[in-house]
Design brief:
The protein has two helices and five strands. By secondary structure, it is an alpha+beta fold. A three-stranded antiparallel beta sheet has the order 1-2-3, with no helix packed on it. A two-stranded antiparallel sheet has the order 4-5. Strand 1 and strand 2 form a beta hairpin. Helix 1 packs antiparallel against helix 2.
Length: 112
């Protein structure tokens, strides 16, 4: 088994709030370079405690419209991942309905 690293760097302002988020991955197809990001959501499921550990960070220049898009895209991806992992079509479809609702309410996508 080969190990790979994904690195995250967070610069903090004088109030300890993220001013810059950068990440790099060894096997990035565009090469292991630092990439800038305005936000990140990291969830890890603890094997022993069966609990989710979360790190949610965003920079002060992240606009509400960008946060709406970020969450829409994240929720859409989670719905897909949930179906792939569980094959529970009914709940995955319900999840996608919420994603559609969220997208429409935030005007990321047009209302049907």
């Amino acid at each position: 088994m080969a190990d790979k690293q994904i690195l995250v760097q967070v610069a903090l302002d004088d109030q300890n709030k993220p001013s810059e988020i950068r990440w790099s991955a060894e096997d990035d197809p565009q090469g292991a370079q630092w990439r800038s990001s305005k936000a990140m959501l990291l969830s890890l499921f603890d094997r022993e405690n069966l609990d989710t550990l979360k790190i949610d960070l965003w920079t002060s220049d992240m606009q509400v419209m960008e946060m709406d898009r970020f969450f829409f895209q994240t929720l859409r991806g989670l719905a897909d991942t949930y179906f792939k992992a569980t094959q529970n079509a009914q709940l995955a479809t319900d999840f996608q309905r919420f994603v559609q609702y969220f997208g429409e309410k935030t005007e990321i996508i047009p209302k049907k």
